Automatic annotation (TrEMBL):
InterPro entries: Znf_SWIM. Residues 93-116, 626-635, 660-674 have a biased composition (Low complexity). Residues 57-91 form the SWIM-type domain. This is SWIM-type domain-containing protein. Residues 581-612 have a biased composition (Pro residues). PANTHER family: PAXILLIN-LIKE PROTEIN 1, PAXILLIN-RELATED. Residues 93-131, 576-635, 656-710 are annotated as: Disordered. It comes from Kitasatospora arboriphila. Transmembrane segments: none annotated.
Length: 768
């Protein structure tokens, strides 16, 4: 290191300067220095760097402090471009004259006290912020910040540490509230954190103490009560234990009485206890009760999104977390969330969008935007929901892409780089964006930012990542992180695309950059009818290099549930893609004379009922699962309906169009009185039920011109839309009719009208 230079300022790169100020100021200052309009740096004997800019502004950067500790006569709040220009000019001067001797009025400014003596030489040992004592810490962040950090230390906190290595020279501490990075060895004034300015010093102090206590370990827990009391949850005071006991009593009552007896009084009690748990910093328990309240509300509203198995899992999770706290090796922050901060304001956070997922119910639509935070190595979730109007067509995912969040379209947020000065992060890593003129949020195209994400946000070896997670605690007692399994996976091959008509599921065999096989799987959702079409088209294009997905292992297979894809330089979000998911229209016949009509089928005997078609008659058991619902869009070409029977996309089978025997040749079943023929609408008589052979029952009609209800009922029983015994036709909303039943809403209405003429129950709303 040459004399007359500042080692701390030479260690600042463009990314660190952008984090300390903003990227726009760094670019402007760099242009001024390149054009020769920058300040001329001069180093005082005490190590203070001074300079005068062409516009008359004078800048001074004393040693031992960051850029915000310097002074500038321009009067701009915070770090101005003149300070950045002085740093860049000093770096250019030192680079241009590496062997120059110190001139008059200069001094050799060595690295800080916590850095190795030769930290700038290759092969030196990595430094640790824990080498700095409390005196240097107080001088860097102030006594008030240290006092606030000591109060947090008394409550206890947990930190995940990334120690400096030859390939990663910057120590990083991941705290519950934010991430702290130390880019300059031995200097705390240049520490970079995404916490708000009023809490910056406190977070730096907590990170320094964590490195001091870690002694090379990747995770450390400090403060709180270290000696657990058997039978009593650790680090819980009397108020917290009381709130937890109340929550357990309410869940026992719900478990004994069931959701059917959970009235508004019990739900109100759950609301009250949830708020109390959140106020007592028991965030994971409060999250469990919030999800449980959502399930009870769905059951009370008879909504289809109520899941009994989900309710049972939430009850088990609450009791599992309570029992795990008595274990000596349990981490209170991991099990209960007691050391998590409810909300943390983030200072000028930079996020990279990883796509969006859209979900829908009969009454609402919701969107989840996944945003990677490279500085913290985590994925944040931005959630929004919209209630559906009582009348009108529910919006699809493509229509929701035009909705605005914090002044920006949902589609832009899901495919862009987000820079915000008004972001707030919750304990569950959920993100909130404010809106204002001072604290603005800007969005720019994401480009190829996915390829620059650090690990573990960007995965190149799926097997190695999943092996590293095998020692995690079970999900019931893990921290409730919203998007803990969302990653960007680099792909090396897209092999086989197939469609499972039974599950309405698109599966694709892919390989990651290391050659490990995985299955990319996506299921059809009526709220996003064009998702599968867009996903299949992107995979078939051969341009997909990365995919953001939920990574997991199912039945020994690595399964990726895609959120978005990087195809070239464009980010494709299937849930926001246009398209109605309708099958393509049939091809037009070639010009020329019309083809000859098909030969007429032989007329059955008047004494015998109309026989079912060959494929219908041979089905003696329940219908094939692949017939449960038709595919849509591109997958309609793979739909293989039997040649002589009806598929769900047809209103009647071939037998329904065949002329029935004459009414005069019929013989009513034994013991059934004949009914007089009514005028104005067709009359129908039928033969009931399936016989011992299990074949579909045959119901005859009397008016072939109308295509009566009896043949329709027989066809629906054959393909499994209704049951031969106590059949029920359900349709939660009109938009679900075509994807799941293959009928237009008008055809379904006509079908219900025909069934009611035969004595079916009246139409009513309810959960199937």
């Amino acid at each position: 290191m040459s004399a007359g230079t500042r080692a701390d300022l030479l260690a600042l790169d463009a990314e660190t300067l952008a984090a300390l100020a903003n990227r726009g100021l760094v670019k402007r200052a760099a242009r001024e220095v390149d054009a020769g309009d920058g300040p001329v740096p001069a180093l005082d004997p005490d190590g203070t760097l001074r300079g005068t800019c062409p516009d008359g502004s004078t800048v001074a950067l004393p040693p031992g402090t960051g850029l915000d500790g310097g002074t500038c006569s321009c009067g701009a709040p915070g770090v101005c471009r003149h300070r950045i220009a002085l740093v860049l000019a000093h770096q250019r001067t030192a680079t241009g004259a590496p062997g120059s001797s110190p001139g008059p009025g200069t001094s050799d400014s060595s690295p800080g006290p916590g850095a190795p003596e030769s930290s700038q030489e290759p092969g030196t040992p990595a430094w640790s912020p824990g080498a700095l004592d409390d005196e240097a810490l107080t001088a860097a962040v102030g006594a008030r910040a240290v006092a606030a950090a000591r109060r947090t230390l008394e409550r206890g906190y947990t930190a995940r540490l990334h120690h400096a290595r030859p390939d990663a020279s910057q120590p990083v501490a991941e705290l519950a509230a934010c991430t702290v990075r130390f880019p300059v060895p031995g200097e705390l004034g240049f520490a970079v954190t995404d916490a708000a300015q009023d809490r910056r010093g406190e977070m730096i102090a907590l990170a320094v103490w964590a490195f001091r206590a870690a002694d090379g370990r990747p995770t450390v827990a400090l403060g709180g009560r270290s000696e657990p009391d058997p039978g009593t949850p650790p680090v819980l005071d009397a108020a917290q234990r009381s709130a937890l006991d109340t929550a357990l009593d309410l869940t026992r009552e719900l478990l004994l009485d069931g959701a059917v007896h959970a009235g508004p009084v019990l739900t109100a009690a759950f609301h009250r206890v949830r708020d109390e748990l959140a106020a007592r910093s028991l965030h994971w328990l409060a999250g469990v009760l919030a999800d449980l309240i959502g399930q009870l509300d769905a059951y009370a509203a008879r909504a289809a999104d109520h899941r009994p198995e989900e309710t049972a899992l939430l009850l088990a999770e609450l009791h599992a977390r309570h029992r795990a706290t008595a274990h000596s090796g349990a981490s209170p922050s991991e099990v209960l969330g007691v050391r998590e901060t409810a909300e943390t304001p983030l200072r000028r956070v930079r996020l990279t969008a990883l796509g969006c997922r859209v979900r829908g119910t009969a009454t609402a639509r919701s969107a989840e935007v996944y945003l990677a935070h490279p500085a913290a190595g985590t994925v944040l979730v931005l959630r929004r929901s919209w209630d559906l109007p009582a009348d009108g067509t529910p919006p699809t995912g493509h229509a929701l892409g035009a909705r605005r969040i914090a002044g920006h379209r949902l589609a832009a947020l899901a495919t862009g780089n987000v820079v915000s000065e008004s972001a707030v992060r919750s304990a569950a890593r959920e993100l909130g964006l404010g809106r204002g003129r001072i604290a603005a949020t800007t969005v720019s195209p994401v480009g190829t930012a996915w390829t620059d994400l650090p690990a573990p946000l960007l995965l190149t070896d799926l097997d190695a990542r999943l092996r590293s997670l095998e020692g995690r605690p079970p999900r019931l007692i893990r921290a409730r992180i919203a998007a803990e399994s969302v990653h960007v996976v680099e792909l090396s091959a897209v092999e086989d695309v197939r469609y499972d008509a039974a599950e309405q599921r698109l599966e694709d065999a892919v390989r990651d950059a290391a050659g490990n096989p995985a299955t990319l799987a996506a299921t059809y959702d009526p709220a996003c009818p064009g998702a599968l079409d867009t996903l299949a088209a992107a995979l078939a294009s051969g341009t997909v290099t990365h995919v953001s997905a939920t990574v997991g292992r199912v039945a020994g297979r690595t399964v990726l549930e895609p959120v978005a894809l990087l195809a070239g330089t464009a980010v494709v979000v299937p849930d926001l893609a246009p398209g109605g998911g309708a099958p393509p229209p049939p091809p037009r016949p070639p010009p020329g004379p019309p083809p000859p009509p098909p030969p007429a089928s032989p007329r059955p005997s008047p004494r015998s009922p109309t026989p079912p078609t060959a494929d219908c008659a041979t089905r003696t058991g329940p219908p094939s699962p692949a017939w449960s619902a038709p595919p849509t869009g591109w997958a309609a070409a793979a739909w293989p309906p039997p040649p002589n029977c009806c598929a769900p996309s047809a209103t009647r089978c071939a037998a329904a169009t065949r002329k029935p025997p004459s009414a005069a040749g019929r013989t009513p079943p034994s013991g059934s009185p004949s009914r007089p023929r009514r005028t104005g609408r067709p009359s129908a008589t039928g033969e009931s039920g399936a016989g011992e052979s299990g074949a579909a029952p045959t119901v005859r009609r009397s008016n072939p011109a109308v295509g009566g209800p009896s043949e329709t009922v027989r066809c629906l029983i054959t393909v499994g839309m209704i049951s031969p015994m106590g059949g029920v036709i359900t349709a939660s909303e009109p938009s679900w009719t075509t994807p799941f039943a293959g009928l237009s809403p008008r055809d379904l209405h006509r079908l219900i009208t025909m069934l009611r003429r035969e004595g079916a129950d009246a139409v009513r709303r309810g959960r199937p």
